[in-house]
Amino acid sequence: MNALDITGLNGWLAAQGSGGRIAVKQVVVEEDLFGRLPALLAWQKAAERPVVVVMDHTPMRRGRADAKGEFLRIIGEAGRAQVVRVGTAGEPAHAELAIAEDLARQLPAGCQVISFGSGTVTDLAKHARFLADQNRPESERRTFVCIPTACTVTAFSSALAVLGVAGVKRTIPSQNPDYTWVDLGMLAEAPSPLTRAGVGDLLTRGVAYADWYLSSLLGIDESYSDVPRRLLADHEARLPAMAVALGRGERGAFRTLMEALLLAGYAMSVVGQTTPISGWEHVMSHYLDLCNGARHKPLNLHGLQVAAGTFVATRAYNDFVGGATAAELVAAADVDLGERAGAQIGKHFAAVDPGGEIRAELLRDYLPKAERWRDAATRLRRLAGDWSSGRVQKELAERLMPLERMDAIAIAMDLPRSLREMESLPCPAGAAETVRYCHLVRQRFTLGDLLSALGWLGTRRVDRWLGAD
Ligand SMILES: [Zn+2]
Q1: Domains in the chain, ordered, with CATH?
Q2: Cα of 444 to ligand 1 centre, how many Å?
Q3: pTM for the whole thing?
Q4: What is the pLDDT of residue 47?
């Protein structure tokens, strides 16, 4: 799969019977994008319309030059650009809906919006453009060009934005960039934790697909499709070799990594949701962001959190697939998850939410999932009846990334293989608490919810999934 050949990819999607299409118009990947920028900007008619550049205050190098200064000089020669800097020099911007709303008010009709940054800047600019264009006539619509400065996330091609709403991280339907322009030189010079985080975010497919399939087996999420999985299969097989090449600092590997991130962004966008690459491991990450944030602790890089979560979730899946019994599944079908969640949310989050607002929001968000779980009881009993055939276990195992492949990637990229390795945890028992309680913070059904119903989130098992200290 060639991430740059959008026409070819859309043809492939049509042949797969997929209703979704990739709406990004063009991706340009250059060793020296800056050399080609004047031509690209002229082609975009940058001199004839307002241009708004969105960036943060983080200094960035490109060769011996200041990347942002150089970029703004080229933009300045192409036309008159307004520069909006999010965050401050001391406090980097957070991806918050309120900031995107404020930004949307600063985008003139018909302008070209250019984001120059990594995930946060991209999601803020992306969603600001989406909001500004709501209910506007065609003639007033903005164009959005995304220039990634590090291989961190899948935001550079996706039609979804991850933003904080009322203190809780949410994935919101948004609009994909029209154009993504990539400078490989800049990506290769980005701080290495950012590149590691990008690889970490790609690992998550290895667990997310099993979660989505599990959810579809129970009738909780009927939207399951194998198309995104097939779209990513090629690149996934190349991840171990790519990780080794990245570890050696090979320039070409940055192209492979960016292409894999772009494909992952398409994979979500064609089904209009993050499920193909966001399962229980992402729920763990959301929980950590919520609790670290509430305790005013620093947030870990998203990609490193989800990488660690993928290992924990895969170990749990292997135990579940190999060890759960039909009798346990039948007993789980009678568990009222809504009642259990009400008691757990009330107690567990009291320390980080004395006022109760976060807990009320969490419960409001959880209850529809508990409702769907109740409706799934018949399907779960039926699944238990078929459990001895091993069919379901095999289907779930096929959708997991083998631990050996994950290990090879993690070793090459120095990725964490347990939540205990996270630099910032809300409290000393934070890693275990994440596994035990994270399913309470997100509406998506994953293995975590089923394990809660099975009574499998006790200390002994959770400690084993977290691995030895
Ligand atoms: Zn992610």
Answers
A1: 6-190 (3.40.50.1970), 202-225+271-466 (1.20.1090)
A2: 14
A3: 0.91
A4: 84
